[in-house]
Amino acid sequence: MTSEAPRMPARQHPGPDAVSPATGADLASVVGRPRSRSVVDQLREAILEGAFAPRERLVEAELCDRFDASRAAVRAALQQLAFEGLVELQRNRGARVKALSVEEAVEVTEVRMALEGLCASLAAQRATAKQRGRLRTVLGEMEEAVRRGDTQRYHDLNAVLHHEIYEAAQNTTCIRLLAHFRAQMVRHIEPSSRRSVPVEPSKPRQPCGPTSRTSSKRSGASHLPW
What we know:
disordered C terminus; mainly alpha; 9 helices; Four Helix Bundle (Hemerythrin (Met), subunit A); Arc Repressor Mutant, subunit A; elongated
């Protein structure tokens, strides 16, 4: 009588939630539990808001603790921001916030002026009646902020104005490039001075009133102070 070889139990395949503690956070988006904000988004925002000074070292271990992220996620974020021009990766020395020279700042400003002029021109041609109404409302509030000498309010409304213009322009490539160059310029301004730009009383130009394509291009860059 022959004895049967013992049967090996069938291998149990882990379900989608059976992930190891070491990789559970990194795989959250795969199994349908995405993080509210990615590490690269959080680090980018921190740099743009002045949490890290130009040339400041970005230590991986500290970033892991700050953003509750794995070292792999932090490294990927640093590589992405290096590609965007916000971070500088130095061999055998790690990463640091990239500083912008005065010459580079001038070049970036020149490019932004051209792109903002293009956006203003496109917005003048493509804005709907509703969008023109919102622009006039924002401009009126900006004038009121100037009269009150409310610099903080003026800068906040200025950001809203540009958002409305970009939306009316309907050109995603132009908007993406402007966001990239704006990020570079923010790094050149000292954090303590970003809200201290004096506001001089002036009448903002109406960017979306009846105008020709030529005049909108000519005035596009000049009416955008941001």
